Fold this protein.
Amino acid sequence: MAEVVEELRALARDLLTKGAVQVFVGYGEGSVPGRTAPTIITTAGRAGELVWNKHCLNNLAVYLTRNEVTKRGRVGLVVKGCDARAVTGLLQEGQATREKVVIIGMACDGMGEPLLEMCKHCDAHMPAGPGADAHHLACDYIIGKATAPDVAPEDGGACYADVAKIEALPPAERWAFWQEQFGRCVKCYACRQVCPLCYCKRCLAEKNEPQWLMSSAHAAGNFAWHVARAMHLAGRCVGCGACERACPQHIPLSLLSKKMAKAVLQHFKYRAGCDPAATPAVKTFDPSDKNDFFR
Amino acid sequence: MATIITAENLKQLASALLKAGYRVIAPAREAELTVFKALKDAREMLPESEYILPQASFKEFVFPRCECILRYRFGEDKLPVFESPNLDGEPQQAVIGCRPCDAASLPILDKVFGWDYVDPFYFKRREKTVVLSIACSRAGESCFCTAVGYAPDATAGSDILLKKSAGGKYVAEVLSDKGRELAGKFGSLFEQVEAAPPVEVAELKPAFAVEKIKPWLDAHFEDPLWLEIAARCMGCGTCAFGCPTCHCFDIVDEGDLSGGCRLKNWDMCSSALFTKHGSGHNPRTGQEQRYRQRVSHKFKYYLEKFGLRACVGCGRCSVRCPVNLDLCGVLKTIASKQA
């Protein structure tokens, strides 16, 4: 780990010194043990603040959508294999420009102590490096070597076991389950703010002429928000889990996004962010679509 | 003379208060979270050794996250008929087992809600609330109460303060008329002893010199530090909504052609929309300006206007922040600078 950290710091120092990037986004020490903090540096002198360890949970791709970061120039961005999928999504949706970001892919054996559940189903321990084929996002630099083996894509469906449990419930129980979960929502919008793909400058939740969603944190407003959010991320969510980790109320948000991902995979054979050459499900139009309202 | 209550009798007190029709608010578990909850049963109350701080303060019980402040319907003549919700029926509330930092937030909130217009929605509940806090015998890793003028056994806002002693007993310091009334009404659960036994109170060295914060803020409205600190802020409201003293709200109308409701909802200064004018102009264009507002409101404006800082040092903002933007660390940085 120590060599990896040194390599990362040296690279950040070098990129900032020669002006290849004007701002570097990585992880730094957190305020308490067991946490890291996204760290944004603009001078080579601060490269020593960067760290790499088991607690680099944040998906830093979200900073590509933040003017506070991008206005400073070309961004050096530290990504894990899973985070790279969000970068792919942003590139596909025209929210980032490949030339304006230098991507540093970190080999990752999984995050968290104990290991995060999502990391047990990971098929992206090693991000693709320079020279990767068109079906992989080619990072500009790769640091480290992953030892954890990738599982099969979608883990042969095993990653949807928790979704299947909810699907198996009778409708009334499913309704009660979500009512209870959404009942805790306080509408802090941490789920939206940390999501790299939730980049709208004006979210529909904040439109009030006409008002699309009730902005209050009551049962109807919370239900509307979470369902709208899930629908807007269908086929776009890359499954990084940032929303669920950010939720102060422990609402199992990834259940919703996984349910959507599962449906998109089943009906469109598409996994968001995995293949830069694939056409995103929400970008396709097929005159032979089985639904009438499309034609 | 000292007043003692045992942990068992504290539970009995919660039970007796429930029987007497009180809403009893205490730390309890909900979906793996430790939260302040209106108890249905006193057995839900967590033993004090099992928590330091619930994940959010109990402000929701005096300042709900979403509250109807006016109902309207359209009468037969199509003219609106207004009705104000009647809060007289709100029950008496007892907060049991909160920490002194959370209790200290009440006198702070009183200022803003009672400054020129006296907010009846807040004060109806506030007046009916009695607070029994328990001093901390250990500090959390993000706690910084001593740096902002409070302490693990601070008395501000508490009606009764309990301090842990040996053998599952607490020494009760009765601090107000409300506290005396409660201790009197349920006197059989308290015991009077000749001499106060020794108590355990956490020690926490102040993390920074708070008197240095305002002078720096006075002189550095524009400063590169803001961007350096706050470029990573995500602009969500998780800090504000967990904060015992954050009190901003938004007013929205929800209704249809037959009538509706005017609601008072929690709001947050970290959101870009918070200051957006009807004209489309937004005086706070960047996240660093919004974060500056948050710090300045707590450590400069509130202090100037009300003589109190709007921070009790509970550290929840740091704990809850998805990008670990640590207020205590920010204040340490500011305090280390020359004003």
Observations:
- The two ends of chain B are 48 Å apart (CA to CA).
